[in-house]
Amino acid sequence: MAETSAAAAPGAGAPPDEPVPGSISPEPGVPTVLETLRRLDSGPRGLTETQAEERQARFGANTLPAQRDPSWPRLFVRGLRDPFTAVLLCLGLVSATATSWGTACVILLLVAVSCVLRATGEHRADRSMAALRDLVAATATVLRRPGDEASPRAREIPVAELVPGDVIRLGPGDVVPADVRLLRAQGLTVHQAPLTGESAPAAKDAADAVRAAGGGDFDRPQLCFQGSSIASGSGTAVVLTTGARTRFAAAHGALAARRQAGAFDRSVHGISWILIRFMLLTPPLVLMVNAALRDRGLETLPFAVAVAVGLTPEMLPVIVTTCLARGAAQLARGHGVIVKRLPALHDLGAVDVLCLDKTGTLTQDRPTVHRALDPHGRDDPAVLRWAAVNAWWTLQLADLPAPDALDDALLDAADEDDLTAYDGVAAIPFDAVRRLATAVVRTPGGPLGTHTLVVKGAVEAVLDRCTATDEERARLLALATAHADGGLRVLAVATAERPARIRDCTPADERGLTFRGFVTLRDALAPTAAQALQVLADRGVTVRILTGDHPGTAVRTCRDLGITVPEDGVLTADRIDGLTDAELTEVAARTVVFARCAPEHKVRIAAALRAGGHTVGYLGDGVNDLPALRAADVGIAPRDAVPVARESADVVLADKDLTAIGHAITAGRHAGGNIAAYLRITLSSNLGNVIAMLGAGLLLPFLPMLPAQVLAQNLCFDAAQLAFACDRPHPRVLRRPTVLRPRALLRFITGFGALNAVADLATFGVLAFALHGRDAVDGEAVFHSGWFSENLLTQAAVMLLLRAGRRRAEGPIGWAAAALTAVGLLLPLSPPGALLGLTPLPPLYYLLLAAVLALYTAGLLAVGARDARLAADLEKQA
C-alpha cells in the first residue's frame, strides 16, 4: 500500500492529511501504552472483579445520559410561546373583538398549523436521538480476573458494566462499546462513518511510535470510539472513558441541546414586538384623542379596534408561509434540496458566510498524481512507473481487499502494460510503524537470478533506508518539504537489486536502497466547485474552510479554486485554543482557512462568526459535525450523511455539491426579498393611515371612516398583497443577503409612513375644498368615500413603486395593483359600496385627487431613488 510523507490515505493506517512527516515519536497528548495503563491503574491482564465493582460504583453505568423526550402535546404547547405565534394570537383576538369572525378563524387555523409543524419537526429529531442510542453495542468481550493472582478470563458482559481500565477484545463486526486505547492490533480497520461521515474504514494501530494528526482524536490510530464498528482484523484495547464522558455521548448531548435562534427567528422576534407595541398603543391613542377633543367615548371603540386591525399585517403569516413553502417546493422539484424547517429557507437567503470542509465538497474523495520527479526535481516518468509497480504487486500479493486512495491514484496514472510486464515475487504491505510498502518483482530483460526490491512510502522512512549521504539526505528532505508546504502529498520511491532466493522478503531487506525520486499528489478538485464558488461570491457569500488537513494542503486547494487567502488568513487549531471567544470573533472575521480543526474548534468558529454579526451556514455529514450543525444559523447535510446528522440538519442536499447550495441560497433570497417587500410596503402604508386617522380625530367632528369601511379597505389591500408570494424580486435583491433587520425596517416604515400620512392629510384638504357647501350628512358620506378611494389608490402606487426596486407594472404585483385601483374607483359607485355607506364622488374630486397622487408618486420615486443609491453604495463597499 501507499504511504506518503503526508501520511497515508484513510484506510492506510496513518492520517491522510500530513504533507511531510515529522518525528516518529508520539505527539504530545497521545500517551504510550504504558502511560495509559498506569494512568488507569490497570494492566494487560485487565481488572479484578473487585476493582470493576468499585469503579462501577464510582463512574456509573456505561450508558448514554438519560434523556426524557417531551411528548408531542408538550411540544405543541411550547410552540405557542414563539413571538411570531404570539402576534398571530393577538391578531386573532383583535379580529374577534371587532366581530370579524372569519378572519379570527383563519388566523387561529394558521396558529394551529404552525404549532403542528414545529412540534412534528422536534418530535422527529427526538426519534433520531433514540436511533443514535441504538448504535451502541449490547455486549462486549472483557478480560476480568477473580483475584489479584488469578489468570484473566474472557467473557461476555453487558456494555453497561464496562468501566475505565477494563481490557476488551475486538473482532470483525463488533461495535466499539466505549472510548478505548489499543494495546495490540492486527490488521485492524474501523468504520467511523457514524462519527466522522468518512465512508472508508480507518486503519488502527497500537504502536506508540505513530504520529498523531493534528486534526483531532478521530484521526489518531491508537484510539477507537464508541459507536464505530470493526471492519476487519482484531485487537485488544483498554477502556478510557465510559457513559457520559465518551465522544459518542457528547454528540448525543449536542443533538439533544436546543438550537439557538436563527436569523429568521431573531428577525421575527424583533418585528413581532414592534407590531405588538403598535397594536397595544393604537386603540388607546384613538380613544383618547376622540374623547379629549370630540367628547366621544366608548362608541369609538369599534373604530379604534378596526384601526388596530388595519395597522397590523394580517397576511404576514400567509405571505411568509406561502413564500417559504413555494421556494422549498421548487428546490425539491428542481434541485433535490429538501428544506426540513421552513424558516431555514429564509436563513439561507440571509447567509453571508458558508463553513465547510474541503474534502468531498471542494475536492473529490481521492487524490491524483501531480508530478513524478527525479532526485534533482526534474520530471521523470520512470519514478511513477516504479511507484505504480509497487502499488500493483502489493495489492496482488499481500491479499489486500482494495487499494487505498493513494495507490488508486498511482494505478490510474500508470500505463497498464508497464505494470503487467513485471512478475511479482513477494510483497510486504504498508504498516503504520514502518510507513513503507515493499514489492519484490522480476524486471523484464533484467539479469537472470536477480530480483528488484521496490519501496515507496514516507520520505523520511525511505531516506533512512537509502545509501545517500547525510548531506544528500538533507537536500532531498528539503526538496520534499518544499513540495509539501505547497499543499502536495509526497511519496518517496527507492529500489535495490537483490539475488533471487526462496525465502520470504522481510523488513530487514529494506536496506541499502537507491533513491529514485518523488511522486507528488494533489487533491482532485470537484468538477463544479470553481463555478459554484464564483456564483456564491457573486451572491455576497464568503467561504470558510474548516478542515483537519495540513494548512498548506487547504491553502493550495483554495488557490486552485480561485479563493483568495491573505497572509493572515490561515488559523490552526493550536492557535484557536489560545484565543478567548472575543479574540476568536475578531480573528475569524479575516480568516479563510481554519486548519487542523477538531469538532470542538468548529463549534467555536461558527459561534464566533455569528457573534461577529454574520449569518452562518455549515455543511457537515458526520456525528462529529452535530455540534457545529446546531451552532450555525443553517445546518446543511448531504443525503448520504449519517442518519443522525441528516435528521439534525435544516437542509438536506441530494449530493454534497456547492451548486445545490447556490440554488438554495438564491431561492432563500427570492422568498426573503418578497417577505421584506411585503413588510416594508404594508407597515409603511398602515402607519401612514394610523397617523392620518389620529390627525382626523383632531380635525374632524365625525369619524374619518366607518369601522366597516376600514375593515373592507383592509380586506381589499390584504387580498392584493397575496401577489407578493408569487412576485419575482429585482435581481439586485439576489446579489446580497436578505436579512430582516427590525431597526432598519422601523426607519423605513417611519419615513414612508410619514410620506403616506402627508398624502392623506392633503386628501383631507382636497375633500374639504370639494365638499364646501354640502350638508353635514352628505358631506360625511362623501368624505368617507373619498378617503376610502384615496387609500386604495395610494396603496396600489406603493405596491408598484416600492417593490424591491422595480418600476414597471408587470407580473402578479401589476395585476394586483390594477385590481386595487379598480376597486377604489368603482366600489363607491356600486350597490355593495352603498351597503358599506359609500357614495359617488363629485367630478372635481377626481381632478384634485389626481394632483395629490401625482405629487405622492413623485415623492415616492425621489425617496426610493435615494434609497437605491444608498443600497448601491453599500453594495460597492461590501
Topology:
Layout: H1 33-40, E1 47-48, H2 49-59, H3 72-79, H4 83-97, H5 101-133, E2 139-145, E3 153-158, E4 167-170, E5 179-191, H6 193-196, E6 202-203, E7 223-224, E8 229-241, H7 247-256, H8 263-294, H9 301-311, H10 316-335, E9 338-339, H11 343-350, E10 353-356, E11 363-373, H12 381-397, H13 405-413, H14 416-420, E12 423-428, E13 436-442, E14 450-457, H15 459-463, H16 470-485, E15 489-499, E16 514-525, H17 529-538, E17 542-546, H18 551-560, E18 570-572, H19 573-577, H20 581-588, E19 593-595, H21 599-611, E20 616-619, H22 626-631, E21 634-638, H23 643-648, E22 651-653, H24 658-699, H25 707-721, H26 731-734, H27 742-770, H28 776-801, H29 811-826, H30 831-835, H31 843-877
Parallel strand pairs: 1-2, 10-17, 10-20, 17-19, 18-19, 20-21, 21-22
Antiparallel strand pairs: 2-3, 2-4, 4-8, 5-6, 5-7, 5-8, 9-22, 11-16, 12-13, 13-14, 14-15, 15-16
Helix pairs in contact: 3-5, 4-5, 4-8, 4-9, 8-9, 8-24, 8-27, 9-24, 9-25, 10-24, 11-24, 12-13, 20-21, 24-27, 24-28, 25-28, 25-29, 27-28, 27-31, 28-29, 28-31
